[in-house]
Amino acid sequence: MNEVKLRFHLIGRFKLSKNGAEAKDDVAGVIDDANKNILKKGAPEGGGAEVVSWNVDDTIMVEIKSDRYVRAHDALLRLRKALTRILGKRRIGIRGIEVEKFIITIPTEKPLRKLKIPFVKDMQYKNGNILLELDVAEPQIESRVPDRIITLIVDKIESQKYGKKEHWELLWESKEKTLRFTGDPTQELIKRRWIKHGSCRGQWIFGPQITKVLRTFEQIVEEEILRPLGYHEMVFPKVVAWDVWKRSGHAKAIYPEMYYVCPPKTRDETYWEDIMDYYKVTLEVPLDMIKERIDKPIGGLCYAQCPPAWGFLEGETLPDDILPIRVFDKSGTSHRYESGGIRGIERMDEFHRIELLWIGTPEQITEHSKKLQERYKHIFENILDLQWRMAWVTPWFMAQEGLGGLAEKKEVGTIDYEAFMPYSKKWMEFQNLSNNGDKYPNGFNVKLQSGEELWSGCSGIGLERWAAAFFAQKGLDAGDWPSGLRRRVKTLPEVFRFL
Amino acid sequence: MNEVKLRFHLIGRFKLSKNGAEAKDDVAGVIDDANKNILKKGAPEGGGAEVVSWNVDDTIMVEIKSDRYVRAHDALLRLRKALTRILGKRRIGIRGIEVEKFIITIPTEKPLRKLKIPFVKDMQYKNGNILLELDVAEPQIESRVPDRIITLIVDKIESQKYGKKEHWELLWESKEKTLRFTGDPTQELIKRRWIKHGSCRGQWIFGPQITKVLRTFEQIVEEEILRPLGYHEMVFPKVVAWDVWKRSGHAKAIYPEMYYVCPPKTRDETYWEDIMDYYKVTLEVPLDMIKERIDKPIGGLCYAQCPPAWGFLEGETLPDDILPIRVFDKSGTSHRYESGGIRGIERMDEFHRIELLWIGTPEQITEHSKKLQERYKHIFENILDLQWRMAWVTPWFMAQEGLGGLAEKKEVGTIDYEAFMPYSKKWMEFQNLSNNGDKYPNGFNVKLQSGEELWSGCSGIGLERWAAAFFAQKGLDAGDWPSGLRRRVKTLPEVFRFL
User: Fold this and answer.
1) What's the alpha-carbon Rg for chain A, to the nearest Å?
2) Which of B203, B257, B325 is the closest to A267 by Cβ?
3) What confidence tens digit (pLDDT) does each residue in B375-394 have?
4) Do residues A346 and A423 make contact, with C-beta atoms less than 8 angstroms apart?
5) Could you give the dihedral angle defined by the CA atoms of residues A69, A70, A71 and A73, in that order, rounded to the nearest 10 degrees?
């Protein structure tokens, strides 16, 4: 973004409380001075903004050209401040700003496809530049709408040029392990009646045997991670309101992948009586009628597990001596509208995670992340005996905001844990671990008493993903399983048989 | 319903493959005979249906009057069968049925309010009767639409007459107990920062202390119920498709109280790009745009916890020797769009339950229910020392289908467990236990190898409700708690402090 040579051309008007002709010389003085000083401030030699023409009558018209160092709309606000002072002496007030014309020129090799962006009147591609004509008024300039439009366009140009730039860098890889199974674990689970497809897309009902294995994974996490590392359990909410996703950043890009939750418009039974009657008579649920009676979505189902926990801390100042905070949640389901065909328990629309969340100073976060990595390594190597690897990837919170690349600070980012799937010869991500930097404390306005920087980290342990990885490598026969798991599982319950 | 004196008047036509004039005498014979035999079959002396006039040309017109014993539309189907046989001899085929006029008379003291019911052309109130004019064709008669319309109207008349008839009958009541607290438990929990309101209606974030208490309740359930009574854990799905609620009966009445789940219309990112851009520029989520891009609801969030488990057994035949099946689920949240003002943790839109489900012969279900009642009594009396009572109430599955009263079989029904809330001097339901009879095996088509009747029972242990009851009576100071709980809780974790 720093390298993009932006140019701005803006014609604006300051509305006056009375005709400003008498103040013409004063205005001339302000503008001459501004062109030398306040419109150059912060820009390198030869850069900044310039008022290239102006006029005073019932309004003060200014035509501004600028570069990226002092953007024309910022110049307009700087001018207002200077003019307000000088006009005040003559009891002339500035009653508002109008923007007559605002064109931003952004160089790029290729045009972007047609876009519908709020406050953009027109967008053209000419001679290697995108010409962006904005239709903004004072409130949009005050709330920095033009800056966000520019960021958006520049991001699109870069993403067109470089793609999503998903980073992937191998950190560590286990030895090859003894693989006991080469089939598709989901097919085998179905065959043995350990799972059955649920009534919804990407959803499974788990029978007693696999549930026992999932709960044994949970027990391992408790014995090897939660207790030794000092975690305490909380219960995080599972329906997530838009406000949480605004603060967590998910509101930027979550839409194609989320499940939306809508409440009824009212709980009044008479409002719903004809729908109940329709069903009782026809035995069909009248979805078109229902769609009209439900409200706009209040948000959606849990997508990333930790964001709604931050409400507990929102707006608070914490004493330093309670750090590092270590809490976890395993109170419910996560949901994603997943792509692709049937992927069984490897990629589900409804799944279960243990989510770890730790909060502390940057040093504490980094140190804790290392401890966690050791514990995970111990589990995957010595208990589950998996063939697995770790990679440094685009941080999950950036990926989920539609961004690529890496975070600016090198400690901040995500480690993906991947397991080898013998049946497909592919690697599958089965959990991750992230240092989220100051992202969440900033988003939810959580501060430290000392004023020091506050960071956080999180790690999502996907129980079905552990199961998919484990079964894919070791199969479903407990006799083939490593002793550390077998010992903990003890016996697999036999509850059902079918004819 | 048995006592309602229904009268039917139907004019219908059998469409013929060619003019039926030549068969007039045969038709006369069939109708004479039908008026004596098949249209009286199953009716008491003097009752049944009668063809009061008829005619043959390109069609056979019949005018039928009847009572509730042989409903006119059933009479029409009986006549078709008889006519088909006799006309077949002359190579005349019946090509379909048309219903020209169909009026059902239902006596009632008061008119119903205006209703919009499918296949009802007109509904009038005259001289103590509702006159219902149906607009049905052959498919509706075949699929029993008229019968369901009658049931619906009769239910509405009865509900208008008697109200919802919610049954409540005290079964047992504990002695008065030592009450350690008289405040509103929710207010005290907020004050001590054990809970904080979530981002959604009726939703709370649970901090480490209360989570420890909830998990201790879970431990008690495990030690005192799940293990001794031989339960095994499963994972039941948490988004519930309409098809499940059709089979469970909830589709009859759930609409005002459920949370609806809608998927995106597509996962294609370009379809959502302008919405992402809108958010990135304005920092506002454009709900009106989003509403147009999401699909009709696929169902809703978990409401009653056991229905989606039945998919595991749907359409299966079970060997008798695996009974009684005992499984439970504690894998996620339940959600209800609740009425009333703020009720804190006593009435939440998002809450957590351990759901027990047992399946077996009628005797096994009844016997297991008794064992469970004993275990519950032991917990509430000897471990939690609650002031509580049990009542025999309208079965939950009937209540949730908008019905009142009691089930037809006396063993089938629901026991509500209620705790005394000192601060409000009211009783609060904190869990229930139901014998659901053959409802679920029937709905999900699950059979027993022996052909014997299959029943089921379920019990929802509401963790927040247990907490509300317990805190309301004993307060939040662990020193005041009965030793059986204190011993299990050990220490309450102190993770957070705020400035």
Assistant:
1) 29
2) B257
3) 999 999 999 999 999 999 98
4) no
5) 170
Rounded-to-integer distance, Cα B356 and Cα A439, Å: 41
Q: Does residue A226 come out as left (phi exceeding 0), alpha (psi in the -120 to 50 range) or beta?
A: alpha
Distance CA B356, CA A460 (A): 28
Nearest alpha-carbon partner for A186 in A431, A491, A423:
A423
Residues B224, B338, B411, B438: which is the catalytic one? B338
Q: Which of A245, A280, A321 to mutate to test the interface with B (most CBs of B within 10 A)?
A: A280
In this structure, which amino acid lies at residue A292?
E
Whether the Cβ atoms of residue A64 and residue A76 lie closer than 8 Å to each other: yes
Residues of B in contact with A119 (CB under 8 A): 281
d(CA A127, CA A445): 45
pLDDT in tens, B319-343: 999 999 999 999 999 999 997 665 7
Which residues lie below 8 Å from residue A1, measured CB to CB, with a gap of 6+?
A151, A154, A158
- Domain A166-242+304-489 homologous superfamily, CATH: Bira Bifunctional Protein; Domain 2 (3.30.930.10)
* Structure confidence by residue, pLDDT tens digits, B412-453: 999 999 999 999 999 999 999 999 999 999 999 999 999 999
Contacts of A170 (CB under 8 A, 6+ apart): A389, A390, A391
Which of A285, A351, A354 best tests the B interface by mutation, with the highest count of B CBs <10 A? A285
User: According to the model, what pLDDT value does residue B383 have?
Assistant: 98
Q: Does residue B450 belong to the interface with chain A, where contact is any CB pair within 8 Å? A: no
Decide: helix, strand or coil at residue B94.
Answer: strand
- Cα separation, B300 vs B173, in Å, equals 37
Best CATH choice for the domain B7-162 from the list 3.40.1620.10, 3.30.499.10, 3.40.50.2300, 3.30.70.1920: 3.30.70.1920
Looking at residue B456, its amino acid is S
pLDDT at residue B286 is higher than 80: yes
Q: Is B287 helix (H, G, I), strand (E, B) or coil?
A: helix
Does B227 qualify as catalytic in the annotation?
A: no
Q: Is B451 on the interface with A (CB under 8 A)?
A: no
Q: pLDDT tens digits for A346-398?
A: 999 999 999 999 999 999 999 999 999 999 999 999 999 999 999 999 888 88
Q: Of B176, B213, B225, which Cα lies nearest the Cα of B420? A: B176
Query: Could you report the predicted ipTM of this complex, rounded to two decimals?
Result: 0.94
Question: Which of A300, A310, A399, A275 shows the shortest CA–CA distance to B245?
Answer: A275
**Angle, alpha carbons B410-B414-B416 (nearest 5°):** 135
> Average pLDDT of chain A?
95
Q: What residue spans in chain A does CATH classification 3.30.70.1920 cover?
A: 7-162
Q: Model confidence at B161, in pLDDT bands (50, 70, 90)?
A: confident
Count CB atoms within 10 A of the CB of residue A261: 26
- Find the residue in A nearest to B267 (Cα): A256
Residue B1 has pLDDT above 90, yes or no: no
DSSP at B401: T
CA gap A421, A389 in Å, rounded: 12
User: Sign of dihedral through CA atoms B270, B271, B274, B278?
Assistant: negative
Mean pLDDT of the region B456-476: 97
Distance from CA of B148 to the nearest CA of A (A): 5
Between positions 245 and 274 of B, the ones with CB within 8 A of A are: 245-246, 251-253, 255-264, 266-269, 271-274
Distances (CA, A) of B122 to A4, A171, A277, B11, B116: 71, 74, 15, 16, 9
Q: Which of B114, B239, B498 to mutate to test the interface with A (most CBs of A within 10 A)?
A: B239
The SS3 assignment for B181 reads coil
